[in-house]
From TrEMBL:
Matching Gene3D superfamilies: 6.10.140.1950
InterPro entries reported in the protein's UniProt record: PCRF, Pep_chain_release_fac_I_sf, Prokaryotic/Mito_RF
Peptide chain release factor domain segment(s): 37-143
Keyword Lipid metabolism: no
Signal peptide: none
Organism name: Aegilops tauschii subsp. strangulata
Stated name of the protein: Peptide chain release factor domain-containing protein
Key words of the record: Methylation
One GO BP annotation of this record: translational termination
Amino acid sequence: AAWRCPYTPRLYSTADMSHQLPANLVQIMEQRMKLIEQKSAYLQEQINQPAASPEEYSRANKEFHKLESTMELIKELRSKQKEIEGLTSLVTNSVEEKDMREMAAEELLEAVEEEKRLQHELFRTLLPKDEADERDCILEVRA
């Protein structure tokens, strides 16, 4: 019998984002998210200080704008996680109302799928950038 390699989508692929990220990877992402939130708050303080020199202001502003898109994703993910907590408690606590429980369970499934999508998107933004991405290139096309 020939050995067959099963198809597994790469993490950077958009082929299948329905699978959950491993728990240890989610923990690492949480740590990175906290660091980014702290750095963003620090940079915001630096920008708002009236005594900051123009060089410090410029550097802090540039770094802050680099983190802006990542911070938006983090805020979205945090919001979705709070929504999931609320829906989970609604599903477990609304025993007497069957319709309410079913509707909350349906919304919970949608929220979990959205959370997975946000986690994958955030994971891609947290990956280190390649130095070659910012460089110019020359492309020669011959007929």
